[in-house]
Design brief:
The complex is a heterodimer of chains A (about 120) and B (about 425). Chain A is α/β, with parallel strands linked by helices. Chain A has 4 helices and 6 strands. Chain A has a 6-stranded mixed beta sheet with strand order 2-4-3-6-1-5. Chain A is globular and about 35 Å long. The radius of gyration of chain B is 22 Å and the shape is globular. The chains are: A alpha/beta (about 120), B alpha/beta (about 425).
């Protein structure tokens, strides 16, 4: 297990499939977590492996991806239903939940990545 | 034959793109726009409790839900036109509900900052023509507004700027994004440190010293260089994104950034502007502002409008379980709200108006399919810099437009209330 900060955000693929949310294309565009190469290797991850991302607000199983964009200790999940399982819902009176910069942890897991529909059922 | 259309995906609202109706083919669009102007699965027909019904029956059921609710939430509005939004504001007032829109989870913290500090801004045209320093702060147009760099901010040819070589591009971000890889300078910061970094820049620009060697992961040396670069620009711009509004500090980050711009204007010309997401998210704030005085998080339960994001923003209302029905239009809160807010949406009657099935469709009791603006219906949208553009109808459709659906809904609500 590794302590990280979780951020979420838009990607080109997420945007291009945002009006097709019940398709595999959208599922594949939002169901992963990017880690820096250093963190990816430290967790002993390989292509197709899954990770469980946990924060005090929830947990979610997603696919792991290596990214050259991230610094060590920061992980990125595309905005959407998977990221929203773990981000901080409190708004500090602004109306805006904290979608970026939530402290949490990442660990390798054998559990399955839920489909968009299954995810909705467990909420 | 291809004809000029206006793209209705992101806040850049590109007006130089083309669409071939016969071949159903989009030309000159980016990947996001092409996805908008492509054939994909639609909601086939209006539905009540999963059964297909007529538009009349669906709007009747929707009107009953709204009239019977004590306090409905009417949320979305960013991917529709001003004409529909105007009816939505009137409808919310009639049913004494709460009006909130997508900026609530996007750029609304910037609205709060504008209330405090104002917004020294400019149109995208002015920026294209003049800016020799472009700073993307917590924004990543290569993925979120792919043609913005080309048309306005990076390589665009302007009146006084001949192209990319005349412009310095800086990216301030947590990630080395696709935009950062194209920048001249990349300033990598720690998540949630926007505020102290802006404060440090303000001190350095004023000629004061900062007493630390590093702020939020950025060395004093690099901060000094950035401060100098900003001060010596002829015309600078900060385009900020959700990296700033969704991180620790939220509205205060923007407020501090606006103060930085005010300071810079003592030395040179500098502007700041949000990279608005949906094609008419500006309208979803501007229209209620010209109708009732506020941009979002507006409660009509007392019969007059009250603004308070701490109480009436969609996420606060849902997490407090303070609404007993919801109308969701041109948005998908089930996919884009935190789990704690979605929980309550699953429990209350939900009406959805949208062209495409999404996660909100899965929890909606009444689903009303609508036409796609820019393709199947026309109307007015505000580009991210507030320039109004008339989006076109180039294809005939059986689907009702949001405007027509809301007109019908409003009529039925008035009838049911016996007004």
């Amino acid at each position: 297990m590794m302590e990280v900060e979780v951020i979420s955000g838009r990607t080109l693929d997420q945007g291009a499939t945002v009006e097709e949310k019940l398709t595999d294309e959208y599922f594949n565009a939002v169901n992963y977590c990017e880690l820096s190469e250093e963190d990816y290797n430290a967790l002993g991850l390989a292509e197709g492996d899954k990770v469980k991302v946990k924060t005090e607000f929830g947990e979610v199983v997603v696919f792991a991806k290596k990214s050259d964009e991230l610094p060590k200790g920061v992980v990125f999940i595309p905005m959407g239903p998977y990221a929203n399982q773990v981000i901080d819902p409190s708004t500090d009176s602004t109306g805006m939940p904290q979608f970026k910069g939530v402290k949490g942890s990442v660990e390798k897991t054998d559990e399955n990545v839920l489909s968009v529909k299954e995810l909705l059922e467990v909420i | 034959m291809a004809q000029k259309v206006i793209c209705t995906f992101c806040g850049s609202v590109c007006d130089d793109v083309e669409f071939d109706v016969e071949e159903f083919k989009a030309k000159k669009f980016c990947k996001l726009g092409r996805s908008k102007f492509s054939k994909k699965e639609r909601i086939k027909a209006p539905m009540v409790d999963g059964k297909e019904v007529s538009y009349e029956e669906a709007t009747q059921k929707a009107a009953e839900i709204l009239v019977n609710a004590k306090k409905p939430l009417l949320y979305g509005w960013a991917s529709t036109v001003n004409e529909a939004i105007r009816l939505g504001v009137i409808l919310t007032e009639k049913v004494r509900g709460v009006y909130d829109q997508c900026a609530s989870v996007c750029h609304a913290p910037g609205t709060l900052a504008v209330i405090e500090e104002g917004l020294p801004g400019a149109s995208l045209g002015a920026i294209k023509n003049r800016a020799d320093l472009v700073i993307f702060w917590g924004s990543n147009p290569m993925e979120a507004h792919p043609r913005h760099p080309l048309r306005y901010s990076m390589s665009a040819k302007g009146l006084l700027i001949s192209g990319r070589k005349d412009r310095k591009v800086v990216v301030v971000d947590v990630r080395k994004t696709k935009t950062a890889k194209k920048a001249d300078v990349f300033v990598q910061i720690k998540p949630g440190y926007d505020y102290p970094i802006i404060s440090a820049l303000r001190a350095l620009i004023k000629g004061e010293d900062i007493e630390v060697d590093e702020v939020g992961g950025v060395s004093k040396e690099q901060l000094k260089e950035l401060a100098e670069m900003m001060k010596s620009a002829k015309y600078g711009v900060i385009f900020y994104g959700l990296g700033v509004t969704q991180s620790r500090g939220r509205d205060r980050n923007i407020e501090n950034a606006v103060k930085l711009i005010q300071l810079l204007n003592r030395y040179t010309r500098f502007v700041i502007w949000p990279m608005r997401g949906h094609y008419n998210v500006v309208g979803s704030g501007e229209v209620p502002a010209w109708e009732v005085g506020y941009q979002y998080a507006i409660d009509f339960s007392r019969g007059y409008p009250r603004f308070s994001p701490a109480e009436f923003s969609a996420n606060e209302v849902l997490q407090r379980k303070d609404c007993d029905a919801a109308l969701v239009i041109a948005a998908d809160p089930v996919a884009h709200f935190p789990k704690a807010s979605v929980k309550h949406l699953k429990k209350i009657p939900v009406i959805q108006i949208d062209p495409f099935p999404n996660m909100t469709t899965l929890v909606a009791d009444v689903v009303i399919p609508s036409a796609v603006y820019g393709l199947e219906a026309e109307g007015t949208a505000y580009r991210m810099d507030g320039i109004p553009l008339r989006v076109k109808k180039v294809i005939d459709t059986e689907y009702w437009s949001d405007e027509k659906i809301l007109e019908e809904l409003l009529k039925k609500v008035v009838e049911l209330r016996g007004e």
